[in-house]
Write a structure and sequence with these properties.
Number of helices: 16
Largest sheet: 2 strands, antiparallel
Number of strands: 4
Shape: elongated
CATH topology of one domain: Serine Threonine Protein Phosphatase 5, Tetratricopeptide repeat
Structural class: mainly alpha
Order of helices and strands: HHHHEEEEHHHHHHHHHHHH
CATH architecture of one domain: Alpha Horseshoe
Strand order of the largest sheet: 1-2
Helix content: 55-70%
């Protein structure tokens, strides 16, 4: 049957055969991998009825929505799941006729999550810049949809990050500038909620695409870092100081960059002091100073600070010996195993 299906080709008019109401009917906001399961369920029904073209149609959409998103791989971020010598569908499996069909219907897809995925896949396979523009705009729509849902923060950021990756393909021009403006608007919208994960990620993404005039954002980061310090949120303060340093580095303001890096290194010192409050725990205090020393050593002109911290660390290490002991802990990974199995459940494996 698979050989016969490979001979069939889909035409634009076949797109109307998809029951989108049934696929998209959900009380919760779902991602591509969830839609994939729905497409495959419909495919199985047509397998039983012998309707080969309907089966091919739903299989194609099930395959494309089954890829997992690997944002660390910009050239091809869509990967199959692999298990031993088998794998699920891959972007390389798409035929010329598949791509032609998708090209003809991509703008008509009534769902931003699926439309952005297909526009992106078409760009990766056909290298037509028109698909980049469509994907960027639709990823932004998906970002807002996920963001408006209480459990959609991380998927929202992932869609925006992929849009940033695509926008950076334009070294200059209106598309890039419009996208920079869009992220700046989002930063202004959420800066009063600082510090927050969303704001931090927005500032990270802006740094990846904005080339000049970064002082305003660097100043904002400095202010948030100082706010976190005032609350003794040293881990959060460090994250903002580090990003602040990256902004000043891009602006070539190396004096401010080093100042931010010193403030970041100092958060380790403050955590060391914190470990000695009430019931002093010297192993932790010494460990934090060790990280402070490593951070300061990467900054020019801090040799005296390093020397003083070394003396302090050695003293803490001596006192730490009496507090050290054997620590045992059992870890149950059964939930992780179940989660991985659930992600590939119902997906057909492909031995190509």
């Amino acid at each position: 049957m698979e050989e016969f299906m490979s001979i069939l080709t889909l035409k634009k008019e076949d797109f109307s055969r998809i029951d989108w109401g049934k696929i998209l009917n959900s009380h919760s906001l779902i991602e591509n991998r969830d839609y994939s399961k729905k497409f495959y369920e419909e495919m199985d029904q047509f397998e039983e009825s012998g309707n080969k073209k309907q089966k091919l149609l739903y299989k194609l959409f099930g395959d494309i929505t089954s890829y997992y998103l690997d944002l660390d791989s910009k050239d091809n971020p869509y990967k199959p799941f692999v298990y031993r010598d088998k794998r699920t569908a891959s972007i390389e499996d798409l035929t010329a006729s598949d791509l032609s069909f998708l090209d003809s219907i991509v703008k008509e897809i009534p769902n931003s999550e699926i439309k952005a995925r297909i526009a992106d896949v078409l760009w990766l396979r056909l290298r037509n810049s028109n698909f980049i523009e469509l994907a960027i705009g639709t990823y932004i729509d998906a970002y807002h949809q996920f963001l408006n849902h209480k459990s959609g923060l991380h998927p929202a950021i992932d869609r925006l990050e992929r849009a940033v990756q695509l926008a950076t393909l334009f070294r200059s021009g209106e598309i890039r500038e419009q996208f920079v403006k869009k992220i700046e608007e989002e930063i202004n919208k959420y800066k009063e909620e600082a510090p927050s994960f969303l704001l931090f990620r927005l500032l990270q993404l802006l740094l990846n695409i904005k080339k000049v005039n970064l002082t305003a954002e660097a100043t904002l980061l400095k202010g948030i870092a100082l706010l976190a310090e005032s609350k003794k949120d040293w881990h959060i303060a460090r994250e903002y100081w580090n990003l602040c340093a990256e902004y000043y580095k891009k602006e070539k303001d190396f004096l401010e960059r080093d100042s931010a890096k010193k403030a970041s290194a100092n958060t380790f010192v403050m955590l060391s002091r914190q470990a000695l409050e009430e019931e002093p725990f010297y192993p932790l205090a010494a460990g934090q100073l060790k990280q402070a020393i490593e951070a300061y050593r990467r900054i020019e002109g801090t040799s005296e600070i390093v020397k003083e911290l070394l003396k302090e660390m050695i003293e803490y290490q001596k006192r730490a010996i009496s507090q050290m002991g054997l620590i045992k802990k059992e870890v149950d990974i059964s939930d992780i195993v179940k989660s991985v199995v659930e992600k590939v459940k119902g997906m057909p494996f492909n031995n190509k």
